[in-house]
Write a structure and sequence with these properties.
153 residues, alpha/beta, Metallo-beta-lactamase, Chain A, 6-stranded mixed sheet
Length: 153
């Protein structure tokens, strides 16, 4: 494997970072936490990228994500949710609200890319005060309330 290929990198026991090579627009990185459930922090933007990510997660954990936590509502982080229809979606209230509306891609900014079969992001995000996504046996480090990190709008 070269550094030009997406890869799952172990960060700690039960924790991985999925790193995608720089490829222009609509490319992001994700996180995976395997505890009682497998939690994905964000997803990807296209069908091809999401399927590759889900396969890497299943290889590492033996399961696809049962929970997805969205950090923000941009399509490069949320579009792949249609490929995990059984997963619980967790998001900040502002992200959940954003997902109720179609996201407008700016064609004058984004280079053409192959979307594949990933319709608009699921709009069934739940808002929680706290979500435990720790690997088994990890110490509780508390919650971090507030609004999600966002890119400049």
């Amino acid at each position: 494997m070269t550094n030009d290929e997406p890869r799952l990198e172990r960060v700690a026991d039960g924790v991985w970072a999925y790193v995608q090579p720089d490829g222009g627009w609509m490319v992001n990185n994700m996180g995976v936490i395997a505890g009682d459930v497998v939690t994905s922090v964000d997803l990807t933007s296209t069908e091809r990228r999401t399927r590759a990510y889900l396969a890497a997660v299943a290889d590492a954990t033996g399961r696809e994500p049962q929970r997805v936590v969205f950090t923000h509502s941009h399509p490069d982080h949320c579009n792949g949710a249609s490929l995990v229809p059984e997963a619980e979606i967790i998001a900040h209230r502002s992200v959940a609200d954003d997902l109720q509306r179609p996201h407008r891609l700016a064609p004058h900014i984004f280079e053409p890319f192959e979307q594949g079969d990933t319709p608009r992001a699921r709009a069934d995000a739940r808002v929680r005060r706290r979500c435990d996504a720790r690997p088994r046996g990890a110490a509780d480090r508390g919650a971090a309330p507030g609004h999600p990190g966002t890119h400049a709008r």
